Amino acid sequence: MGILQSGGLVNKIKDIGRGVINLVFPPRCPVCDGIIGPVERYIHSRCCEKLFPVEQPQCMRCGKPVLSERREYCDDCARALEHHRQMREDDSYRQGKALFAYKGSIKQTMYRFKYSNRREYAAYFAQTAVERYSDWIQSCGIDVIIPVPMHRKKMRQRGYNQAECFARALSEKTGIRMAKGLVRRVKNTSPLKTMGYVERRNCLEGAFQAADSIVQYDQILIVDDIYTTGSTAESIGHEIARKCPGRVYVLCICIGQGS
């Protein structure tokens, strides 16, 4: 009974299950996509140097790398904050962080993670997030993790939501609840990657819907795969603000370069 109450039996069953899965479907390195052997975990040691962790100086709001330490905000955040000031509205989220700069080998990694069913990469991303930002997550007092939702039509086509994979893995590492149903994508938007800031903002207007039950949470962490202009985070943050006074934070796997 003691082992059952402590969760030890459940963890043992999970470990056995993972072992069987790894034998049938060996985990792959997120950089080179080669099979990970029993000695290494998550990533080949030789591949780590091909990634570019986000370092200082960075935007104080979104965490995007900037070129000068004298810059407080990247151009996108400066534009967003000025828009909020003119509209006399609160900021849509308090602060964001990212693991890697979106350049080099990580671009192919994210493509496979998103389109080639490499869901196992999420474990490495979550582990990296905990190693780099566990203190930040704790200081923010995060009480729920919400993945950026995918429209049901796109979900049927792809079969999975990569942001949800990351959120679930992060939840397992931190013990913080992951709740995918608190924010839904109700508008099937066109691909955003070729759009500018204003186009993205207009396209995402009314794209998300927060559940009334979100009001029970005070500190909300939105997670996504790639952060570009911040329009998605802005849109979700505004929708959450309509339903609850909780503070919103953002954590992404990759982020673009700021100016």
TrEMBL record:
Pfam families, per database record: DZR_2 (PF18912)
SUPFAM superfamilies documented for this protein: PRTase-like
Domain of life according to the entry: Bacteria
InterPro entries xrefs: ComF/GntX_DNA_util-trans, DZR_2, PRTase-like, PRTase_dom
Domain Double zinc ribbon as annotated: residue spans: 20-78
Entry's family note: Belongs to the ComF/GntX family.
PANTHER family membership: DNA UTILIZATION PROTEIN YHGH
Name this protein carries in UniProt: ComF family protein
